[in-house]
């Protein structure tokens, strides 16, 4: 009896992968795929990329624990989440070009629904800091209209949902030291070195 | 609430086994896709304490019934009953022998077998889905297995002979 059940139970994992791919496509077609995600390799470790129908909503470093990040997206945005690389093809390509030194700015639709208030104002300003340039936390605070809100700028950077694409790594302490980075200081150092060399 | 991806990863194989047994391997892919698409649609409203496996098997049951009803209106493509005697000992690489044996089972036996042995559901859940007492569902499942043993020889027994 058990062996008949073994034969009935045999499932090929490639077959399941094909079904999964078709499901992601059908979910996209029916506008049921609220969050699509994939991971990409990069010189600063594996990056999780997630996108809503509006645009890229989250980039996460390995150290942030990708499973935990997806759980947060499920709670804050929608649990209709699937591994669905197609929606992130353009983002993956642009990140590849950036890490290869062939791209200095990103041309991707972004979804800022994970940020609000002053943090959103800060992120908005960060996008105007050009490739290879840096600003201090207090310069960013002034530019964001609140010169005394240096600590709040720090926390806006520390909670940036779109690191690398929104370049919080280009913000340093006034004395030129690194400050913090949610991808780890090695990653921040690597990104700044790469941009300085290009 | 867990991301839907983890639901597919955890239950995808189980739902495919159930769909294959109920509608056969050809239509199983469609039934699987319809099941998970419907589940994705309803997922945000699923109560947090729900048994996700039972929920999916219930959806798969409805989708499979749709497929079977569609077939009874259209000409039935599976008319080829297994010829038990002549096929014994012949390798069944594509599983045709096995699936035609399953398709030849009476509906109640096939569903009771699929939901319990392949879907991992207690017989009580099958009874809710297909009617009848829990005991009659239990009997249908074991009668189904017994009927398969009469006509089908598992692949692992063949290599030794």
The number of E-state strands of chain A comes to 6
CATH topology of the largest domain in chain B: Arc Repressor Mutant, subunit A
What radius of gyration of chain A results from the CA coordinates? Answer: 20 Å
Order of SSEs of chain B: HHHHHHHHH
Which stretches of chain A are low in confidence, meaning pLDDT under 50 for 5 or more residues running? none
Unreliably modeled segments of chain B: 79-90
Return the average pLDDT of chain A rounded to an integer: 95
CATH architecture of the largest domain in chain A: 2-Layer Sandwich
Distance between the termini of chain B: 51 Å
Shape assignment of chain A: elongated
In CATH's first tier, which class of the largest domain in chain A applies? Alpha Beta
Percentage of residues in strands of chain A:
5-15%
The tally of helices of chain B reads 9
Derived structural class of chain B = mainly alpha
Per the CATH scheme, the topology name of the largest domain in chain A is Double Stranded RNA Binding Domain
Query: In which order are the strands of the major sheet of chain A placed?
Result: 3-2-1-4
Described by the principal axes of the CA atoms, the overall outline of chain B is: globular
The major sheet of chain B is characterized as: none
N to C succession of SSEs of chain A = HHEEEHEHHEHHEH
Mean pLDDT of chain B: 87
Helix content of chain A: 40-55%
What does this structure look like?
The complex is a heterodimer of chains A (about 200) and B (about 160). Chain A is of the alpha/beta class. Chain A folds into two domains: about 80 residues, Double Stranded RNA Binding Domain (2-Layer Sandwich), CATH 3.30.160; about 80 residues, Winged helix-like DNA-binding domain superfamily/Winged helix DNA-binding domain (Arc Repressor Mutant, subunit A). In chain A, about 45% of the residues lie in helices and about 10% in strands. Chain A has eight helices and six strands. Chain A has a four-stranded mixed beta sheet with strand order 3-2-1-4, with helices on one face. In chain A, β1 and β2 form a beta hairpin. Chain A is elongated and about 70 Å long. Chain A starts with a helix and ends with a helix. The model of chain A has no long low-confidence stretch (mean pLDDT about 95). Chain B has about 160 residues and is mostly helical. Chain B folds into two domains: about 80 residues, RNA polymerase sigma factor, region 2, helix turn helix motif (Rna Polymerase Sigma Factor, Chain: A, Orthogonal Bundle); about 80 residues, Arc Repressor Mutant, subunit A (Orthogonal Bundle). Chain B is about 70% helix and about 0% strand. In chain B, α6 runs antiparallel to α7. Chain B is globular and about 45 Å long. The chains are: A alpha/beta (about 200), B mainly alpha (about 160). Chain A: It holds the Pfam family Methyltransf_1N. Chain A: It catalyses: a 6-O-methyl-2'-deoxyguanosine in DNA + L-cysteinyl-[protein] = S-methyl-L-cysteinyl-[protein] + a 2'-deoxyguanosine in DNA; a 4-O-methyl-thymidine in DNA + L-cysteinyl-[protein] = a thymidine in DNA + S-methyl-L-cysteinyl-[protein].
